[in-house]
């Protein structure tokens, strides 16, 4: 069956939106973003149009409240919500759908485009009176008070279809063709499943019972009806026996139960409630508890089910019901044509491992055509990371206004000649590595990207040493594991459309390296800063230039930070270079700790460079350090700097990557706790990291 889907919504003056347009996809639409960016309001706007149970008449609180006084004086505020429906690619529309939307169409050629526009407004007849009254308002508060006291009660709502200029109002029948199911974040699933007149479970069972007969294409409708009714009779006969047995056992208890009814006057007209009568198959099923067969094969009743299995069961029942509702054979012309499911914050009810199952479950249902379109709002990084980039819509606040970003649409570069280069490999890379910790970048207000675990662990502590708080500034530190910044930066490049315009700092290493000349297949190998350019006849030299184009002043919202060009190498090297006397660096798992301590003592005592060089143990690496330091000369390499370089080189060779950073982070934290007391030791945060943190904490 071909179909149409909701392809776009434009909202004006509704709740937190002054004016926004959001594009949707056929299938899954995951709306993510910070709190109060308006994710739920977007779903509510859809519900106003498509959910028959939602209130169409709004209140003063539903109108965007930041409209300027000028604008309020020029005309009464109006809420409008416009939804476009597009024909799905590669699908032809069939009878039912086309009939439903025929008078909604704004484009009569394929692909069809239909439109529905909801408005909440002051009728024209009152506009003059409104303008006269509002002129007296001195400020916005007064203006809103006038509207609240005198005009909001006169507001009306209308929903137009097709071109709104034609003023064709929507009719209930075609609106009823939409099956818009809205699951909000707070709900009592068990109540929804089992109780009330219209229990979900009962409806679903009524439909699926005898499904083998109902779906048997070889039977005529009459044969189907006949076979089902003979099954029903059989069931009634056998269940009657069961009921009589039950009543027998309840006889004396019945009196006891009914005495309560007497007591509260529930019996009147001499009739008393009694437990008898028939039982239908679906009621019997509803009474029997739904059992979840877990992998262990154990059966547990639904009421003591943790982890959110109930919610998955509930959603599968709901999808089953949507299938019931869109079954033309079962419901005839009352069948729904557009099943749409909107789910708010599924993580409120699902354990993280279930969240992954949940997305998989939805995808399967869409593929099986059980539901056409799903809208989900979420803060969950688990849900985000298990969703395709193309299905994600990110709402974020920019200078108080809600903006929209489509992470799946940003992977391309525009060359100077205007041609476009597709970056499909970067998109694949980001999709693959956007796990639960990294997908946090899509929710953060500011991001510091780093190359490794050490920076990730230490930068938050460095910020504390600087009296800055990453939390208060909503900054996330995200480790991309190596020099892969570029791939992720496509998401945030403020010079392009569809991106999340955020402040991004990239903290990267200089990584000096050299390569032997005149040697076949020679590769660049890491070297020390003091070895750079010392022997140009024998070596070619290079630094990491990957992020040069993001240096200060070169990009609107992305900036790179790295160590000094002459003295820098890596974070660990820099820590020791800037803290050449600090025993805080000597962590329990550090190798060569005795040697490092002895070298630090010599610096403490102001001993000359020669003594430090003598102290270096005889190893190939140490000979290399001595040799290179002797060769490096000039103003840049005075003895004091060379001493720092010795400590830095030895420290770098002594640290194991992750473990050391973990130990150092806890030592630095403990040290900070005694700030202002006797044992506190000063610690120098490397300049390039200091600059990055300061730039991130600036309010602009």
UniProtKB/TrEMBL annotation:
CDD domains: TOPRIM_OLD
Domain Endonuclease GajA/Old nuclease/RecF-like AAA positions: 4-383
InterPro entries, per database record: AAA_GajA/Old/RecF-like, Bact_Antivir_Def_Nuclease, P-loop_NTPase, TOPRIM_OLD
Entry superkingdom: Bacteria
Start and end residues of each OLD protein-like TOPRIM domain: 442-511
Protein name: AAA family ATPase
Source species: Acetobacterium tundrae
């Amino acid at each position: 069956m071909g179909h149409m889907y909701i392809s776009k919504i434009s909202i004006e003056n509704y709740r937190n939106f002054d004016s926004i347009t959001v594009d949707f996809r056929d299938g899954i639409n995951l709306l993510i973003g910070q709190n109060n960016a308006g994710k739920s309001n977007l779903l509510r706007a859809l519900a106003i149009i498509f959910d028959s149970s939602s209130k169409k008449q709004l209140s003063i609180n539903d109108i965007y409240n930041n409209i300027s006084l000028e604008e309020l004086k020029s005309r009464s505020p109006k809420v409008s919500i416009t939804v476009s429906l597009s024909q799905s690619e590669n699908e032809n529309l069939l009878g039912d759908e086309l009939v439903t939307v025929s008078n909604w169409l704004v484009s009569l050629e394929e692909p069809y485009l239909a439109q529905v526009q909801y408005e909440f407004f002051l009728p024209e007849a009152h506009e003059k009176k409104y303008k006269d009254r509002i002129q007296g308002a001195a400020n916005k508060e007064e203006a809103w008070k006038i509207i609240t006291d005198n005009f909001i009660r006169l507001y009306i709502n209308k929903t137009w279809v097709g071109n709104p200029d034609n003023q064709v109002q929507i009719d209930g029948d075609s609106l009823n063709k939409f099956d818009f199911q809205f699951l909000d974040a707070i709900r009592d699933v068990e109540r929804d499943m089992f109780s009330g007149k219209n229990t979900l479970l009962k409806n679903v069972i009524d439909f699926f019972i005898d499904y083998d007969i109902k779906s048997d294409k070889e039977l005529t409708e009459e044969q189907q009806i006949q076979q089902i009714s003979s099954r029903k009779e059989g069931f009634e006969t056998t269940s009657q026996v069961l009921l009589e047995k039950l009543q027998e056992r309840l006889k004396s208890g019945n009196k006891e139960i009914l005495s309560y009814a007497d007591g509260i006057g529930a019996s009147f007209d001499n009739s008393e409630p009694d437990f008898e009568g028939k039982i239908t198959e679906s009621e019997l099923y509803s009474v029997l508890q739904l059992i979840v067969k877990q992998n262990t094969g154990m059966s547990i009743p639904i009421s003591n089910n943790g982890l959110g299995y109930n919610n998955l069961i509930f959603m599968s029942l709901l999808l089953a019901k949507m299938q019931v509702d869109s079954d033309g054979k079962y419901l005839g012309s009352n069948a729904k044509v557009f099943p749409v499911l909107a789910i708010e914050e599924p993580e409120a009810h699902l354990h993280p491992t279930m969240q992954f199952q949940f997305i998989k479950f939805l995808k399967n249902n869409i593929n099986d055509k059980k539901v056409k379109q799903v809208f989900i709002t979420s803060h969950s990084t688990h849900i985000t990371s298990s969703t395709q980039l193309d299905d994600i819509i990110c709402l974020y606040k920019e200078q108080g206004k809600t903006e929209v970003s489509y992470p799946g649409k940003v992977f391309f570069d525009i060359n100077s000649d205007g041609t476009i280069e597709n970056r499909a490999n970067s998109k694949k890379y980001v999709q693959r590595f956007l796990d639960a910790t990294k997908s946090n970048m899509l929710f953060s207000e500011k991001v510091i990207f780093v190359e490794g675990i050490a920076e990730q662990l230490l930068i938050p502590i460095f910020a504390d040493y600087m009296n800055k708080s990453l939390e208060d500034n909503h900054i996330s530190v995200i480790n991309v594991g190596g020099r892969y910044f570029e791939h992720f930066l496509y998401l945030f490049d403020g010079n392009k459309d569809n991106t999340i315009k955020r402040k991004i700092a990239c903290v990267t290493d200089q990584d000096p390296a050299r390569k032997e000349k005149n040697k076949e297949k020679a590769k660049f190998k890491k070297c020390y800063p003091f070895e750079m350019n010392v022997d140009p006849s024998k070596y070619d030299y290079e630094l990491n230039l990957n992020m040069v184009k993001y240096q200060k002043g070169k990009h609107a919202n992305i900036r790179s930070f790295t160590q000094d060009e002459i003295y820098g190498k890596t974070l660990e090297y820099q820590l020791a270079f800037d803290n050449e006397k600090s025993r805080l660096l000597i962590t329990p798992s550090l190798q060569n700790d005795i040697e490092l301590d002895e070298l630090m003592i010599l610096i403490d005592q102001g001993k000359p460079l020669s003594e430090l060089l003598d102290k270096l143990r005889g190893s190939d690496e140490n000979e290399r350090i001595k040799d290179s330091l002797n060769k490096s000369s000039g103003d840049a390499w005075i003895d004091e700097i060379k001493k720092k370089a010795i400590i830095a080189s030895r420290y770098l060779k002594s640290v194991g990557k992750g473990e050391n950073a973990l130990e150092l982070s806890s030592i630095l934290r403990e040290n900070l706790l005694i700030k202002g007391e006797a044992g506190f030791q000063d610690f120098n945060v490397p300049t390039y990291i200091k600059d990055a943190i300061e730039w991130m904490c600036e309010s602009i």
